[in-house]
Design brief:
It is built from eight helices and five strands; from the N terminus they run E-H-E-H-H-H-E-H-E-H-H-E-H. With about 170 residues, it is of the alpha/beta class. It has a five-stranded parallel sheet with strand order 2-3-1-4-5. Bound molecules: shikimate-3-phosphate (S3P).
Length: about 170
Protein backbone atom coordinates (compact mmCIF):
# COMPACT_ATOMS: atom_id res chain seq x y z
CA UNK A 1 0.00 0.00 0.00
CA UNK A 2 1.30 3.45 -0.91
CA UNK A 3 1.72 6.02 1.83
CA UNK A 4 -0.29 9.21 1.73
CA UNK A 5 1.60 12.33 0.79
CA UNK A 6 0.92 15.18 3.23
CA UNK A 7 1.72 18.85 2.68
CA UNK A 8 2.12 21.21 5.62
CA UNK A 9 3.48 24.73 6.09
CA UNK A 10 2.39 28.32 6.45
CA UNK A 11 -0.70 29.77 4.81
CA UNK A 12 0.10 31.14 1.37
CA UNK A 13 2.98 28.77 0.69
CA UNK A 14 1.05 26.92 -2.03
CA UNK A 15 -0.06 23.69 -0.34
CA UNK A 16 -3.33 23.55 -2.28
CA UNK A 17 -1.98 24.27 -5.78
CA UNK A 18 1.07 22.06 -5.30
CA UNK A 19 -1.08 19.29 -3.78
CA UNK A 20 -3.56 19.31 -6.67
CA UNK A 21 -0.77 19.05 -9.25
CA UNK A 22 0.99 16.30 -7.28
CA UNK A 23 -2.19 14.26 -7.14
CA UNK A 24 -2.55 14.52 -10.94
CA UNK A 25 1.08 13.57 -11.58
CA UNK A 26 1.03 10.69 -9.12
CA UNK A 27 -2.47 9.58 -10.02
CA UNK A 28 -3.63 9.80 -6.43
CA UNK A 29 -6.77 11.20 -4.84
CA UNK A 30 -6.53 14.86 -3.71
CA UNK A 31 -7.91 16.11 -0.40
CA UNK A 32 -7.74 19.75 0.63
CA UNK A 33 -8.59 19.87 4.33
CA UNK A 34 -9.63 23.56 4.26
CA UNK A 35 -12.12 22.81 1.46
CA UNK A 36 -13.36 19.77 3.34
CA UNK A 37 -13.98 21.89 6.45
CA UNK A 38 -15.93 24.46 4.44
CA UNK A 39 -18.10 21.86 2.75
CA UNK A 40 -18.76 19.85 5.93
CA UNK A 41 -19.62 23.01 7.88
CA UNK A 42 -21.37 24.61 4.92
CA UNK A 43 -19.64 27.87 5.79
CA UNK A 44 -16.44 29.69 4.80
CA UNK A 45 -13.46 29.43 7.15
CA UNK A 46 -13.72 33.16 7.71
CA UNK A 47 -17.33 32.75 8.85
CA UNK A 48 -16.50 29.77 11.06
CA UNK A 49 -13.88 31.88 12.87
CA UNK A 50 -16.28 34.84 13.12
CA UNK A 51 -19.42 33.00 14.17
CA UNK A 52 -18.11 30.00 16.10
CA UNK A 53 -14.58 30.99 17.11
CA UNK A 54 -11.10 29.59 16.60
CA UNK A 55 -11.46 26.81 19.19
CA UNK A 56 -14.44 25.36 17.34
CA UNK A 57 -12.56 25.64 14.05
CA UNK A 58 -9.51 23.80 15.49
CA UNK A 59 -11.73 20.94 16.68
CA UNK A 60 -13.33 20.52 13.26
CA UNK A 61 -9.89 20.83 11.64
CA UNK A 62 -8.51 18.09 13.87
CA UNK A 63 -11.44 15.72 13.26
CA UNK A 64 -11.37 16.18 9.48
CA UNK A 65 -7.56 16.00 9.30
CA UNK A 66 -7.63 12.67 11.17
CA UNK A 67 -10.41 11.39 8.91
CA UNK A 68 -8.50 12.43 5.77
CA UNK A 69 -5.28 10.78 6.93
CA UNK A 70 -7.15 7.46 7.13
CA UNK A 71 -7.88 7.65 3.39
CA UNK A 72 -5.57 5.55 1.24
CA UNK A 73 -3.50 6.63 -1.70
CA UNK A 74 -4.12 10.34 -1.23
CA UNK A 75 -2.29 13.65 -1.50
CA UNK A 76 -3.53 15.74 1.41
CA UNK A 77 -3.04 19.50 1.74
CA UNK A 78 -3.50 20.41 5.39
CA UNK A 79 -4.50 23.85 6.63
CA UNK A 80 -1.53 25.75 8.07
CA UNK A 81 -2.49 24.88 11.65
CA UNK A 82 -3.41 21.16 11.34
CA UNK A 83 0.11 19.83 11.89
CA UNK A 84 0.33 21.65 15.25
CA UNK A 85 -1.95 19.03 16.78
CA UNK A 86 0.02 16.11 18.29
CA UNK A 87 -2.55 13.45 17.45
CA UNK A 88 -2.66 14.61 13.82
CA UNK A 89 1.15 14.36 13.60
CA UNK A 90 1.11 10.90 15.18
CA UNK A 91 -1.51 9.65 12.72
CA UNK A 92 0.52 11.09 9.85
CA UNK A 93 3.67 9.31 11.02
CA UNK A 94 1.90 5.97 10.92
CA UNK A 95 0.40 6.17 7.44
CA UNK A 96 2.01 8.95 5.47
CA UNK A 97 5.06 10.89 4.37
CA UNK A 98 4.97 14.56 5.29
CA UNK A 99 6.51 17.52 3.48
CA UNK A 100 7.00 20.97 4.95
CA UNK A 101 6.78 23.59 2.22
CA UNK A 102 8.84 26.51 3.47
CA UNK A 103 8.94 30.06 2.14
CA UNK A 104 10.39 33.30 3.56
CA UNK A 105 8.09 35.81 5.23
CA UNK A 106 8.48 38.58 2.57
CA UNK A 107 7.37 36.13 -0.13
CA UNK A 108 4.47 34.86 1.97
CA UNK A 109 3.38 38.43 2.66
CA UNK A 110 3.44 39.27 -1.06
CA UNK A 111 1.24 36.30 -1.85
CA UNK A 112 -1.18 37.01 0.98
CA UNK A 113 -1.43 40.78 0.54
CA UNK A 114 -4.91 40.55 -1.01
CA UNK A 115 -6.21 37.49 0.78
CA UNK A 116 -9.56 38.04 2.46
CA UNK A 117 -9.96 34.40 3.38
CA UNK A 118 -7.56 34.07 6.28
CA UNK A 119 -8.86 35.31 9.62
CA UNK A 120 -5.51 35.01 11.42
CA UNK A 121 -3.92 37.71 9.27
CA UNK A 122 -6.82 39.93 8.22
CA UNK A 123 -6.59 43.54 9.32
CA UNK A 124 -3.16 43.08 10.88
CA UNK A 125 0.40 44.05 10.00
CA UNK A 126 1.08 41.25 7.59
CA UNK A 127 4.83 40.63 7.88
CA UNK A 128 4.78 41.04 11.64
CA UNK A 129 1.85 38.67 12.11
CA UNK A 130 3.24 36.06 9.73
CA UNK A 131 6.64 36.30 11.43
CA UNK A 132 5.02 35.71 14.79
CA UNK A 133 3.07 32.64 13.59
CA UNK A 134 6.14 31.29 11.78
CA UNK A 135 8.27 31.58 14.92
CA UNK A 136 5.69 29.71 16.97
CA UNK A 137 5.31 26.91 14.40
CA UNK A 138 8.75 26.50 12.88
CA UNK A 139 9.87 23.79 15.31
CA UNK A 140 6.65 21.90 14.65
CA UNK A 141 6.83 22.11 10.86
CA UNK A 142 10.42 20.83 11.21
CA UNK A 143 9.00 17.52 12.43
CA UNK A 144 7.79 16.74 8.88
CA UNK A 145 9.75 14.02 7.09
CA UNK A 146 11.06 16.43 4.43
CA UNK A 147 11.59 20.16 4.21
CA UNK A 148 11.15 21.69 0.76
CA UNK A 149 12.66 25.14 0.42
CA UNK A 150 10.28 26.89 -1.98
CA UNK A 151 12.23 30.17 -2.19
CA UNK A 152 13.29 31.06 -5.74
CA UNK A 153 11.88 27.86 -7.20
CA UNK A 154 9.30 27.38 -9.93
CA UNK A 155 6.37 25.19 -9.15
CA UNK A 156 7.64 22.52 -11.56
CA UNK A 157 10.94 22.23 -9.64
CA UNK A 158 9.05 21.96 -6.35
CA UNK A 159 6.86 19.19 -7.78
CA UNK A 160 9.88 17.26 -9.09
CA UNK A 161 11.66 17.54 -5.75
CA UNK A 162 8.68 16.22 -3.80
CA UNK A 163 8.03 13.39 -6.27
CA UNK A 164 11.67 12.31 -6.17
CA UNK A 165 11.69 12.09 -2.38
CA UNK A 166 8.29 10.43 -2.30
CA UNK A 167 9.10 7.78 -4.87
CA UNK A 168 12.48 7.03 -3.32
CA UNK A 169 10.72 6.28 -0.02
CA UNK A 170 7.62 4.58 -1.39
CA UNK A 171 8.84 2.35 -4.22
C1 LIG B 1 -4.68 28.62 9.10
C2 LIG B 1 -4.43 28.40 7.76
C3 LIG B 1 -5.50 28.37 6.75
C4 LIG B 1 -6.86 28.03 7.38
C5 LIG B 1 -7.14 28.91 8.54
C6 LIG B 1 -6.06 28.83 9.63
C7 LIG B 1 -3.55 28.61 10.05
O1 LIG B 1 -5.20 27.41 5.75
O2 LIG B 1 -6.89 26.68 7.78
O3 LIG B 1 -7.25 30.22 8.06
O4 LIG B 1 -3.78 28.47 11.26
O5 LIG B 1 -2.38 28.68 9.60
P1 LIG B 1 -4.08 27.62 4.59
O6 LIG B 1 -2.76 27.28 5.21
O7 LIG B 1 -4.48 26.64 3.54
O8 LIG B 1 -4.19 29.02 4.15
Amino acid sequence: MKKNLILTGMMGVGKSTVGKSLSERLNMQFIDVDNLIESEENMSIRNIFEKKGEKYFRNVEKTLSLKSIKTQNAVISLGGGSFVDTSVREAINQTSLSFWLDLGIPNLAKRLANSKKRPLINGKNLEETLGHIYKKRENIYKLANFKIDCNKKDKSIILDEIINFYEAKCN
